[in-house]
């Protein structure tokens, strides 16, 4: 359906893209789901945002969004960065969908650089914004050659890179975009999420979709698919996490960001997933109402 | 004698008016070293590339016999199978070490690549094997983490050989492996190749225009000229009693030099 100017979506078709474009993207998505981890080219459209702002993820979200969806957008784990806020506002304007910051409430979560700490469910879809879909691009600059390597599952070179890391640093130094094997067949870049998040991709109940706008590629990991981080038998993959607990909610298991607290080098660790952190703080406040610190009970975050 | 490892017949290849290969036939048996000699432009490298499946001939067939004895047409087996062959049963040693090595990867990584490509996933094991091979090609194992660009030309070439032989291929193609090196370095490298090849029982197709290298390494020699094999036979026979006038000229020019 298309809408005339003055329609509820500011003169745009529902979710900005025209229906033909959405159908084209959905076809690419179906193919991607059918071949887990395989990069499917698609005719990426110009979006009202520059590349690097998640145009690939936005197009995927636009193609799967329905009027009753509830959208959460995170950037490095936070819902309130400029990038996250403007994407959420964009879809609220061009699709009228409800936004949320609560992981559990969302049906679609578009993300840059993190997987939420709260486990996702079958009812949810995780859409990754991907700057560079090709896991081999630093090792093999010729694209035709990387395509051939994928076609033949010829991934020895990726292990050479891990070998070099261990030889040089004593461990695999890759902390982001740590390469994974999907369904035992395709080598895939999980976009620049921290290696800490990699295990969450393994047999995740939610559908995971990846959109790269500049490189015009879509790929997917269907629910409950095997996702293994590459490693060696004697150097097993170890998700790295800063050794500490969150200064706000006390979590000892979530992924932490280090923040400066003053200009004299004071620093503390806080959860990178702001929603997770706030929910834990709220839960702690309700559980211990007699606490000396006043609970931040005034506002819901949504 | 056992059935040939590689068997080629009726090979033709033209680049425009140039006949790089003109009805060439060749076979090589397990463990045999065959040298292809001839002047520049005679078609040696073209023959090697066609035999290794890197280039399709205009006419002719190349058959490879796998360890189970089944013959496969090299140009009909498909890219995936050919690649698998190239990293398991076969190897290719380039004249220019830079074409055969990853210059941005350490010596250990270069040697380990083929192991990892066929599924080795134990870092310590790969490293041990790489160390062993560096020793075998007379490179100080202490340099295992150094980049090949810090190596001399001769060392780079020896590293390329280690990287190729680590998976114990049955057949190795070598295109002028000693070209561009100092004479003394060449001699040492030839000795090393001879020892390794004899030790591992590898078949080698060696392209060279160095008659002395052919004499040292090869069981048989093929002499090429303008895309044709003008003479072939056992090394001593061809070099001591050349029949074709071109071979006589070739041998005489070496003796005179
Ligand atoms: N890619 C190509 N395009 C056009 N002509 C080619 C190509 N490759 C080889 N030739 C020509 O085919 C002939 C045989 O070349 P080839 O490289 O096989 O000779 P060679 O015996 O290896 O010579 P050299 O000893 O100089 O390496 C030459 O005339 C060469 O110019
Ligand atoms: Mg040549």
TrEMBL record, chain A:
Claim: ATP-binding is one of the keywords in the record? no
Write down a Pfam family by its short name.
PhnJ
Q: Which residues cross the membrane?
A: none
Low complexity: bias regions: 283-302
Q: Which GO terms describe its biological process?
A: organic phosphonate catabolic process
> Which reaction(s) does the protein catalyse, per the Swiss-Prot or TrEMBL entry?
alpha-D-ribose 1-methylphosphonate 5-phosphate + AH2 + S-adenosyl-L-methionine = alpha-D-ribose 1,2-cyclic phosphate 5-phosphate + methane + 5'-deoxyadenosine + L-methionine + A + H(+)
Molecular function GO terms recorded:
4 iron, 4 sulfur cluster binding; alpha-D-ribose 1-methylphosphonate 5-phosphate C-P-lyase activity; metal ion binding
Q: Which keywords accompany this UniProt record? A: 4Fe-4S, Iron, Iron-sulfur, Lyase, Metal-binding, S-adenosyl-L-methionine
Region spans: Disordered: 282-302
- This enzyme's EC code(s): 4.7.1.1
EC class: lyase
Family membership noted in the UniProt record: Belongs to the PhnJ family.
Primary role: Catalyzes the breakage of the C-P bond in alpha-D-ribose 1-methylphosphonate 5-phosphate (PRPn) forming alpha-D-ribose.
Protein name per Swiss-Prot or TrEMBL:
Alpha-D-ribose 1-methylphosphonate 5-phosphate C-P lyase
Q: Which organism is it from?
A: Teichococcus aestuarii
Which lineage do the record's taxonomy fields give for this organism?
A: Bacteria, Pseudomonadati, Pseudomonadota, Alphaproteobacteria, Acetobacterales
From TrEMBL, chain B:
A Pfam family matched in the record: ABC_tran
Entry GO MF terms: ATP binding; ATP hydrolysis activity; lyase activity
Q: Which domain of life does this protein belong to?
A: Bacteria
Q: Which SMART domains match?
A: AAA (SM00382)
Gene3D superfamilies per UniProt: P-loop containing nucleotide triphosphate hydrolases
List, for all copies, the residue spans of the domain called ABC transporter: 6-251
Sorted alphabetically, the Gene Ontology BP terms of this entry are:
organic phosphonate catabolic process
Show the SUPFAM superfamilies listed in the entry: P-loop containing nucleoside triphosphate hydrolases (SSF52540)
User: Keywords on this record?
Assistant: ATP-binding, Lyase, Nucleotide-binding
Q: Which NCBIfam families match?
A: CP_lyasePhnK (TIGR02323)
What is the name listed in the Swiss-Prot or TrEMBL entry for this protein? Answer: Phosphonate C-P lyase system protein PhnK
Organism of origin is Teichococcus aestuarii
The lineage, from the top, is: Bacteria, Pseudomonadati, Pseudomonadota, Alphaproteobacteria, Acetobacterales
């Amino acid at each position: 359906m298309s809408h005339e100017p003055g329609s509820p979506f500011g003169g745009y078709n529902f979710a900005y893209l025209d229906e033909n474009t959405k159908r084209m993207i959905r076809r690419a998505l179906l193919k991607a789901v059918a071949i887990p981890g395989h990069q499917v080219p698609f005719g990426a459209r110009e979006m009202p945002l520059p590349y690097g702002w998640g145009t690939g993820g936005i197009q995927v979200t636009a193609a799967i969004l329905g009027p009753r969806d509830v959208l959460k957008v995170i950037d490095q784990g936070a819902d309130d960065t400029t990038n996250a806020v403007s994407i959420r506002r964009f879809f609220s304007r061009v699709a009228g969908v409800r936004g949320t910051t609560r992981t559990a409430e969302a049906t679609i979560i578009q993300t840059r650089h993190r997987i939420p700490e709260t486990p996702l469910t079958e009812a949810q879809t995780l859409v990754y914004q991907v700057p560079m879909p090709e896991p081999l691009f630093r090792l093999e600059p010729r694209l035709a050659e990387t395509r051939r390597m994928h076609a033949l599952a010829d991934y020895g070179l990726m292990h050479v890179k891990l070998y070099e890391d261990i030889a040089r640093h004593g461990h695999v130094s890759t902390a982001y975009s740590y390469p994974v094997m999907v369904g035992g067949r395709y080598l895939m870049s999980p976009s620049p999420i921290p290696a800490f998040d990699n295990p969450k991709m393994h047999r995740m109940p939610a559908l995971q979709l990846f959109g790269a706008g500049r490189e015009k590629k879509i790929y997917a990991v269907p629910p409950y698919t095997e996702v293994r981080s590459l490693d060696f038998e004697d150097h097993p993959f170890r998700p790295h996490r800063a050794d500490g607990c969150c200064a706000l909610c006390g979590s000892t298991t979530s992924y932490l960001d280090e923040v400066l607290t003053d200009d004299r080098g004071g620093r503390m660790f806080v959860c990178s997933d702001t929603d997770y952190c706030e929910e834990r703080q709220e839960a702690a406040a309700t559980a211990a109402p007699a606490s000396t610190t006043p609970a931040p009970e005034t506002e819901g975050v949504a | 004698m056992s059935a040939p490892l590689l068997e080629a017949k009726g090979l033709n290849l033209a680049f425009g008016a140039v006949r790089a290969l003109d009805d060439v036939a060749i076979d090589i048996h397990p463990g045999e070293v065959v040298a292809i000699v001839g002047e520049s432009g005679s078609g040696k490298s073209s023959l090697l590339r066609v035999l290794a499946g890197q280039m399709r001939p205009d006419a002719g067939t190349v058959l490879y016999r796998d360890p189970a004895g089944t013959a496969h047409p090299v140009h009909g087996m498909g890219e995936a199978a050919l690649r698998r062959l190239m990293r398991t049963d076969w190897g290719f040693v380039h004249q220019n070490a830079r074409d055969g090595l990853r210059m941005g990867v350490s010596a250990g990584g270069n040697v380990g690549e083929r192991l990892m490509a066929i599924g080795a996933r134990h870092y310590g094991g790969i490293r041990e094997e790489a160390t062993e091979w560096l020793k075998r090609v007379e490179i100080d194992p202490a340099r295992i983490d150094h980049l090949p660009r810090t190596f001399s030309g001769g060392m780079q070439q020896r590293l390329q050989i280690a990287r190729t032989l680590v998976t114990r291929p049955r057949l190795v193609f070598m295109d002028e492996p000693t070209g561009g090196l100092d004479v003394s370095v060449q001699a040492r490298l030839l000795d090393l190749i001879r020892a390794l090849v004899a030790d591992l029982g590898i078949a080698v197709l060696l392209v060279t225009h160095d008659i002395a290298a052919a004499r040292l390494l090869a069981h048989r020699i093929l002499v090429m000229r303008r895309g044709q094999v003008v003479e072939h036979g056992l090394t001593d026979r061809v070099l001591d009693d050349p029949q074709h006038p071109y071979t006589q000229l070739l041998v005489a020019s070496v003796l005179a030099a």
